Amino acid sequence: xxxxxxxxxxxxxxxxxxxxxxxxxxxxxxxxxxxxxxxxxxxxxxxxxxxxxxxxxxxxxxxxxxxxxxxxxxxxxxxxxxxxxxxxxxxxxxxxxxxxxxxxxxxxxxxxxxxxxxxxxxxxxxxxxxxxxxxxxxxxxxxxxxxxxxxxxxxxxxxxxxxxxxxxxxxxxxxxxxxxxxxxxxxxxxxxxxxxxxxxxxxxxxxxxxxxxxxxxxxxxxxxxxxxxxxxxxxxxxxxxxxxxxxxxxxxxxxxxxxxxxxxxxxxxxxxxxxxxxxxxxxxxxxxxxxxxxxxxxxxxxxxx
Length: 305
Known about the structure:
This protein has a four-stranded antiparallel β-sheet, with no helix packed on it. Strand 11 and strand 12 form a beta hairpin. It is built from one helix and 28 strands. By secondary structure, the chain is mainly β. The protein has one helix spanning about 265-270; strands spanning about 5-15, 20-25, 30-35, 40-45, 50-55, 60-65, 70-75, 80-85, 90-95, 100-105, 115-120, 120-125, 135-140, 145-150, 155-160, 165-170, 175-180, 185-190, 195-200, 205-215, 215-225, 230-235, 240-245, 250-255, 260-265, 275-280, 290-295, 295-305.
């Protein structure tokens, strides 16, 4: 097995509170952060370590997604509601007021529809162009945490705080499958690029691999990956590796073929995060992995063989 080389390219500071959300920008070297201070900050890796404050909100930002065609961004808040922000004019174009927090967004490929995961089991389907709500349903009384869409765009998975993972038809939005995922809470989900597997992480610190079959998802492997909650799972642009970020302050990089551990990114050896790793982005620019943390910093990692 090849050895991965990991080095920290830059550490970005400026937020006054925990950073919970990351979103891609218009260019491969651009991205945005959102945090407990209610700030949306723009970063450009070709322009150094200075961020630009774009917008402020009255409560914590838990989720964001960027629409390059219109230079707009969807922002989800911890205390309810999600907003459409025009980044050119720096104005709020539209908003949905909800009584529950918004934890994650995900676009359905090839469509203008976006999946919105919220507190108390609420799921919304919103048209990203008209900002109209296409569908809304509540499938649990527990939080809908992370969303991911299968590479073929036909299905999406959501991890819930009631320990269940639910799979939905991406065209009809009907529930296709529900199964127990993780003790205490199922937090993060990701499909393998070849669509053979669904990976999930939970509050139990376990990384579970589920094999997708004609009869539904079957348990394939359980890996005691971290010491605390696995907050996020992301796939590398080369589709050979995945990274898990955890409340135990570490990032771990895994081989997607064998699900073997490649590298541990921690504070002691690589000057990693001092507190929980909450969200990650894997950029096509340089193949850099971006991580956001409770320690109020963003770190950019170069990872190569």
